[in-house]
Design a protein that fits this description.
binds zinc ion; TIM Barrel; globular; 36% helix; alpha/beta; 9-stranded parallel β-sheet; 9-stranded mixed β-sheet; 434 residues; Urease, subunit C, domain 1
Length: 434
Amino acid sequence: MPETLFRNGALLLPDAAVLENGWLRVRDGKIAAYGAGAVVPAATDEVVELGGNLLMPGLINAHTHAAMTLFRGLADDLPLMDWLNNYIFPAEKNLTAEWVKWGTLLACVEMIRGGTTTFADMYLFIDTAATATEASGLRAVVGEVLYDFPSPHYGAAENGLKFTRDFIQRWRGHPTVHPVVNAHSTYTCSPALLQAANEIAAEYDVLLHLHVAENEAEVAQVAERYGARPLKHLANLGLATPRLLAAHMVHLDDEEMELTAANDVKVAHNPVSNLKLVSGVARVPELLRRGVAVGLGTDGCASNNNLDMFNTMKTAAVLHKWDVRDATALSAAQTLTLATAARCLRLEKITGKIAVGLAADLVVVDFSTPNMRPCYDRAAQLVYAATPHNVRDVMVHGKWLLRDRRVLTIDENEVYANVEIIAEKIRRAVGRGN
Ligand SMILES: [Zn+2]
């Protein structure tokens, strides 16, 4: 396998430190060495000229439902229950493995073009989603969503548990597709189902990915049913562990903040979705002060409506400044750390930064476009000015997924044609024209 040598550009190192005039060598899918100054390539090297642009670790989307790209823009500006009952649930009733395949591939194209190299996916027909993700070359933690009601995929909940165990056994050890356990939430999963899911996560030492404390109605419902707020309820059941990836965590009281930190619970923060659905604002600066591993997510396209991590970074940074009335809160450097937070997915030994021995999950960001000029601070430019259009090249595990803005692993036109066919069926299912 030829080695790849990036040279003549900036490298984004941990804690948003920038090494100008840098080079980086990739060998066997991993970062083999990096440094600054002149470097002489070997005759067999693939040389990538950075041309003053920036090489950074790929962005990590800590919470999404990839195939929900199919429902992008289907129903906006609606109250949650109207949105769910009259649009999302009728559309999802028709869900098939075929839909999940094309929806996931559309998501992968969007993420590759947006500089995302790793994502946490929670959805149905997850074997199909995993296969599509594998074909795209992206890295992902992937699991089938479990809940008490019958699933269009596996039927009864017991089948879901069995499916999850088989799924983990099938995909365990894969270099880029990491199987995990997913359960929907404390209001859609019985304590028995949550504990059974947690047992599987413990047995295989994988993440248990769950929606937690997204909005006030959920907190009230769980408190009434179980006598404890969602995170406290999970702690009572023995689920507040370092394996728990809790998406949202918008409504935590002080005791729950403490439980989160003390048990090293991971948090996926979804600022755009939380604002759009008027769920509230997670206390992210405080979670960070307590040392909690927080990552950034987009959530699904039905509530965002994109998978753009640049947009998510900017929203997070400006939202938390306003929320705590402090312009120094959530700096660009901190925001970048959140957007590459591999620890949140328990992948810190594999990806998330430029460091020797980690996977070559790398993105070249073009700093030559008008929105990136002039540049006084690379980190600030990435968080406040960059868009997916600035992503020039993407590599995962040493393999090219995007080169000079061309997607190499997926036939984009085939994806778009199939998505249009599915969209026509969805229009008919919910009685909506163009
Ligand atoms: Zn979600």
